[in-house]
Amino acid sequence: MGSSHQVHWLSPTDAAEMFRLVALAHSHPMSLGTIETCFGSLYSSLGILVERRLVGCAILHQIFEDATLIDICVDPSEQGKGYGQNLLQAVIANAVQSKAETLFLEVRASSMAARHLYLKHGFKESGIRKGYYKTENGNEDAILMELDIKA
Question: Does residue 54 come out as left (phi exceeding 0), alpha (psi in the -120 to 50 range) or beta?
Fold first, then answer.
């Protein structure tokens, strides 16, 4: 992997840098305002820093035993280095520590690399949201996935 990196907790002061990252990684990113609402008692935001630069981030939302991975992304110039896998492992560990029983997520149907990563970590496909994601020329389905993490 070259550079050393660690997963860190992110705070509201990191929102602008998170927005920069999601804008690079997603064709239709969350707004800065939406990211700014993803802090507080129901949320956990994690990031990977390489040489003090945010290269990946994830937002987890949890209500009681249900946790949802709101977003996970890695700077396109840093993909393929294991950062997404490290973030996902940290998200799963955080959900387990927070006593979640199920971790949910939605992923673009066309995002085969992400779907493969989730399947590799034990997620199962559980449904489809038709036309959920915007694309350059319309909409794309979301694949619903879940991971049973009961202790």
Answer: beta
Q: What percent of the chain has pLDDT over 70?
A: 97
DSSP states along 66-125: EEEEEEEEE-GGGTTSSHHHHHHHHHHHHHHHTT-SEEEEEEETT-HHHHHHHHHTT-EE
Kindly report, residue by residue over 8-17, the tens digit of the pLDDT: 999 999 999 9
What would the mean pLDDT of 37-49 be, rounded to a whole number?
95
Q: Identify any residues that bridge with 7 across adjacent strands, giving them in sequence order.
A: 48
Q: What is the pLDDT of residues 68-112, one digit of tens each?
A: 999 999 999 999 999 999 999 999 999 999 999 999 999 999 999
Task: Name residue 69's beta-bridge partners.
Answer: 60
- Identify the H or E element spanning 128: strand 124-135
> CATH number of the domain that 10 lies in?
3.40.630.30
Q: How many domains does the chain have?
A: 1
Domain range for 42? 5-148
Which sequence positions are flagged as catalytic? 106, 118
